[in-house]
Amino acid sequence: MSLRINQSSHVRLHYRISLEDGTELESSFGDEELEFTMGQNILTEGMELSLLNLASGDKQSITLSPDQTYGPRDPDNIHDLNPADFPADMKPEKGQVIAFDTPAGDDINGVVVAVSADKVAVDFNHPLAGNTLVFEVEILQVDND
After folding, report:
1. Is 121 exposed, middle or buried (0-12, 13-18, 19+ CB in 10 A)?
2. Which domains does the chain have, with CATH numbers?
3. For the chain, which end, N or C, has fewer CB atoms within 10 Å of the first or last residue's CB respectively?
4. Given pLDDT bands bounded at 50, 70 and 90, which one contains residue 27?
5. pTM across the whole model
C-alpha cells in the first residue's frame, strides 16, 4: 500500500508552474526534484492542499486561483517613495527590482513601476499575485514518519 501525503509528510516531487496560457514559469522536470516537509511554507497553502492524499507515482495538474497561490494584486502594496531615500549611486528605473529591509529586519523585493522627479512608485506585490496558475506535479516519494 502506497503512503498518501498528509499535512506532515516529507515529500519528493517534480513540479511545473505555468500561467493559464501555458507560459512556463518554473519547472523541476528534467532537473533536480523538490524535497520538502508539508507545512514548512515551501509551497503556497493552496499548492500544498492540492497534494493531500496523493501517493508515490501519482501525477496531477490543477488550476489554482490567485486566492490559492499568491493572492490578488493589492493596490495598497504600491508605495510612493522619496527619490532622496535611495542611495546617491542608485538611480531607480522602471522595471528595476530592488531589495528593501522591512521594519522587522526581513528582506522584501519591490519593483519600480514609475519614476518622477518627486516620487518613485514601488510595487511590493508578489510578482505572481493576481494570476491563475497551473500546478503540475509528479509525486516521487512520500514519507510519513
Report:
1. middle
2. 10-71+128-143 (3.10.50.40), 75-123 (2.40.10.330)
3. N
4. very high
5. 0.79
Between CA 57 and CA 66 the distance in angstroms is: 28
Show Cβ contacts of residue 64 under 8 Å, excluding neighbours closer than 6 positions.
44, 46, 47, 50, 132, 133, 134, 135
Phi-psi region of 77 (alpha: psi -120 to 50; beta: other; left: phi over 0): alpha
d(CA 57, CA 46): 21
Of 73, 64, 75, 111, the closest CA to residue 92 belongs to 111
Q: What's the chain's Rg over C-alpha atoms?
A: 19
The whole-chain average pLDDT of the chain stands at 95
**pLDDT at 1 exceeding the cut of 80:** no
Tens digits of residue pLDDT in 120-135: 999 999 989 999 999 9
Residue with cell 509525486: 139
